[in-house]
Every structure is written in C-alpha cells, then in structure tokens.
Design brief:
Belongs to the PTPS family. QueD subfamily. By secondary structure, the chain is an alpha/beta fold. It is 27% helix and 33% strand. The structure holds ligand LPXRUNBV and zinc ion.
Length: 148
C-alpha cells in the first residue's frame, strides 16, 4: 500500500494521576505526531496536487487546525482529575484541554486519531483516509494506532 506521512511537533503538559512513579507529577513533553495517509494518487493534469495523495502542506494545515494548534502549549487533563482541573480553572485564560481518558500516550494517540480521522476522510473522492498515527511522548516512548 502506498502511503504518505507528515510529522509535526507540539508541546503540552499532562500527568497520570495514579501513576506509581514520576508521571503523577505535573510535567510536559515535546510530543511528535506522525500522520500517515492512504488513498489514490491524484491524476489531474495541471493540478497543483497532480501526482500526490495529498499535498504535505494541506496535511499540515488540517493537522494544525484539528489537533496541533488545539493541544500546543495546553495542559491535557483527565476529566476525572478534579484537583488539577480546579487548579487550572483558577488560572485566568489558561489553555486547558479536557481528555475523556487518562492522558497516557496510548489514550492521547487514540484521541488524536479520532480527531483527525474525520478531517482527512475522503476529501478528494480518492479514498483518502487516515491510515496510521504515531504519537511520541519522548524520543524513547510512543504509541501507534492503525485504522481497522
Ligand atoms: N505505557 C505507558 N507508560 C508510561 C506512560 C504512558 O503514557 N504510557 N507515560 C509515562 C510518563 O508520562 C512519561 O511520558 C514517560 O517517562 P519515562 O519513562 O521517564 O520516559 P523517558 O523517555 O524520559 O525515559 P528514559 O528512561 O529517559 O528513556 C510513564 N510510563
Ligand atoms: Zn509524561
């Protein structure tokens, strides 16, 4: 299968409330997200996209709109982490994103996949789809999620 992949980076804070070790503390990461798309190569003479599954600049623009700009420099807090939610709410204008599940890299990858899936789905009638998303929390730790 032919795919393309675009990598973007963002910074965000999180904590894993019940973690046995350091990750229960408020801390942050420079996350790296790799977005892999599949679909037919566009064949349209004279089109800017000719020969592409999707222009990398368009992949980036949609990723920023639906994920990267939303999570960048935000604190990603678990909806049931009431101590931290109350603290963040006490800071005027703080950029906070409430996550339905504990913000491990596994759950964040799944959340990011769901946010981006609809954004890319069949934009050109070429069967374009989000095939895979890889989220690196550190250079040594990451999660991967692939379309069913
Ligand atoms: N399965 C998971 N395990 C852990 C997660 C996670 O999201 N899923 N998260 C953490 C911490 O939040 C942190 O992101 C990882 O910290 P650490 O293990 O220290 O990772 P490093 O790459 O910094 O470790 P080095 O030992 O420096 O390589 C923990 N576990
Ligand atoms: Zn962490």
């Amino acid at each position: 299968m032919l795919t393309i992949t675009r990598k973007l980076e963002f910074d965000a804070g999180h904590r894993i409330p019940d973690h046995k070790s350091q990750c229960r503390n408020l801390h942050g990461h420079r996350y790296t997200v790799e977005i892999t798309l599949a679909g037919a190569v566009i064949e349209e003479e004279g089109s800017s996209d000719n020969g592409m599954i999707m222009d990398f600049s368009d992949v980036k623009a949609l990723a920023k709109q639906h994920l990267v700009d939303v999570w960048d420099h935000a604190f990603l807090v678990y909806k049931k982490d009431s101590a931290v939610r109350e603290f963040l709410e006490s800071i005027p204008g703080h950029k906070t994103v409430i996550i339905d599940s504990i913000p491990t890299v596994e759950n964040l990858a799944r959340t990011a996949f769901n946010l981006l899936k609809a954004a890319y789905q069949d934009r050109y009638g070429t069967g374009l789809r989000l095939q895979k998303l890889v989220l690196h929390e550190t250079p040594n730790c990451w999660a991967e999620i692939t379309a069913d």
